[in-house]
Amino acid sequence: MRGVAEHLLSAETRCGATMLELHAISKRFGAIVVADAIDLTLSSGEALGVIGPNGAGKSTLFNLITGLLRPDAGRIVLEGIDITGLSPEARCRAGIGRSFQIPQPFDHLSVFENLAVAALFGGGLSEVDAIQHCGRMLDLTGLEAKANRLAGSLPLLDRKRLELARALATRPRTLLLDEIAGGLTDAECHELVETIRTIHAEGVGIIWIEHVVHALLAVVQRLVVLNFGKVVAQGVPNEVMRSREVETIYMGVPA
Amino acid sequence: MSGFDTIIEGVLLGGVYALFALGLSLIFGIMRLVNLAHGDLILLAAYLVLSATTALGLPLAAASLLVVITMFVLGFVLQRLVLERVLGDDILPPLLVTFGLSIVIQNGLLLGYGADSRRLQAGAFESSSVALAPGLSVGLAPLTALVTAVAAVALLQLIFYRTSLGRAFRATADNPAIAQLMGINERNVYAIAVGLSLAVSVIAAVVLGIRASFDPSIGPARLLYAFEAVIIGGLGSLWGTLAGGIVLGLAQAIGGRINPEWQILAGHLAFLVVLMVRPRGLFPARRT
Lengths: 255, 288
What we know:
Chain A is α/β, with parallel strands linked by helices.
């Protein structure tokens, strides 16, 4: 595990500096507002949790950050550079990695090749460095024994691990995790949390959308609550969890 | 020996069909694009080689190399400027556009070169033959075509499975949106794929131009043979395409032996039989 950090981070990250900023990001599909002037900031090396009911706009938020969707209004700034107009592949190369809620590996590539593609193109590594880096990421996620299996043949847990490993292979400085703990057993979930802690400890900034709240709270330093495409609460995780907004959303207690 | 002769003849013919089909198979495998102008693009390449040998006075090999580069660039630009705009969930627009392109190329060639039949001059190579066994000799040109087809498939497979470009091709074929999120420039990958497809088609063009005369109207028939070879072999599999070409060549040779008028018909019948028995082709790619 030693030496993972310098491969994950191509630049020294200054603690406290701003990593990612969303300025009044809005997006609507017809009459449905999925992002309503969202302001969000991720500090360098911070782990930020995002919760909210289904349809609150959580995955849309990631689609906007990664460039799969273009916002109707607002700006996205990554490490001081406006990336609002950049393509998804350029944003990946600029340091944003993402895992999907439903794992979407390249089914007809081997596990190793899935990572290699990410490291070569997204991570901008040479062939030799990519092989080394991918080896480390396989090790970190516990996939080394399955490196040569076709990704399409993996069971769910390994697909989730691959999703994480492939996102890491692009050498992100900001990692977006979308409900990666869902559908796992307690033991599997615990193992995953440890892996994410390791990644975070190495200085990677994380935004993590999760319904498995105990897993989320074991890692994140700050929590944001989304509802109807708006940030309705944010702050220290335990305080946010006890807030009236969260009770209203999850328990149905009238405001 | 006459039965054996027929089989040899069929296999060699199959090499030619495989060369016609490779470029088509390549871009279908990566982009799910059926290029209806494929046959006419082969013809365009044949005419460009002809011009390079006659007007520029280059030897055939040098002319072919020049046209390989030209066609690669043309394919790249064609994708970026034209095809890219119509690729999407709907399969009809690319079909219409490539059909239109086919007509444009045919008429462009007619305008530029006239309707006369042309041939590429390959000197003694055209008529020399090699003896495989006593009493059994095959033409050097058809044998070279088959060997070239096998070499081209092997080379493309090598690119697909051993290079980072190939991994980008396969990743993009699997899931273009995710490929982009992994830092792959999808537009460039597609443009390189079309460029490669047209570059490979130059080999088909040279073989076509040496073995028979050609005129601007024969593109669509080449497309048909290429299409049949791809379908018989199984979509998305390059070795399958080679096998498909050989099945088609064998069927035509055997049909032609029974009755010369049945040659083309026998090929189409073999295609229909494969469609009925193995609708996904003989060697379909591992698609889920």
